[in-house]
Amino acid sequence: EPTVRTELMEQIPPIAIFLQESRPKFPTAFFEYLMPIVVRYLTDVNNQVRKAGQEALLILLEQDLIAQSDIENKVCPILLDLSAPDSDDEYKVEAVNIICKMASMLNRTTVEHMLLPRFCELCSDGKLFQVRKICAANFGDICNAVGQEATERLLIPKFFELCSDSVWGMRKACAECFMAVSYTTSPEVRRSKLSPLFISLISDTCRWVRQAAFQSLGPFISTFANPSSAGLYIREDGTLSIRPSMQDVNSNSCQPSNNVTLMTSSTNAM
């Protein structure tokens, strides 16, 4: 029964945590018994079971409970099969979604060598706009996961494609993550390539795209600032913030802190 398999998946993470805490007593139980179930349920015929399996996988990755060898030899190959060009549409959409979510939890080498080539292919998927939409919405996270060199060499050309996509929702998603993409690139790429690209979005024929671009204007401009002098930094939640100066920290006045996100203080940042 699918409901039984779904309930089972929900119990996998707490069992895995227990086994990790009791590892001297159960050194191989998770890898021998539980990990194969998680991998198998990623391809289950029932949608709810697959969803529960995906959620369990993300929790296990977040808790660092899956060995690197299992990620590379068991998890990634399954996701690559599910996201292949000839894969079923529903499976492909789910696979690209899970690839984007898990990229930030894996080491850079694994993402760049195993997942990045497939992500670039999916950015150009002409069959399913849902796949391209997921890629566009998560583009900044993928850039952050692979770093500047891979971003400029492989991802920026794909970003240009998505920014000129015929579906306006794609262009809007690109405008929303523009700051995160810009932050990962060098000042020269930011100046020579991303600035003209941003102007095209802010002049888009669709007002929803223009509105998203204007909302990203302040954060995008802030990426041109010198972090050491401007005191700008990226929080863990991905927002750009301003670090208070030492003068403000040492001041005894009851002024509000300068540590505010640029989403709400772009004028001051500019």
Automatic annotation (TrEMBL):
It comes from the Eukaryota. The keyword Repeat applies. Keywords: Repeat. InterPro entries: ARM-like, ARM-type_fold, HEAT, HEAT_type_2, PP2A_Regulatory_Subunit_A. HEAT repeats lie at residues 115-154. It holds the Pfam family HEAT. One of its GO terms (cellular component) is cytoplasm. The keyword Repeat applies. One of its GO terms (molecular function) is protein phosphatase regulator activity. This is PP4R1 phosphatase. The gene is Ppp4r1_0.
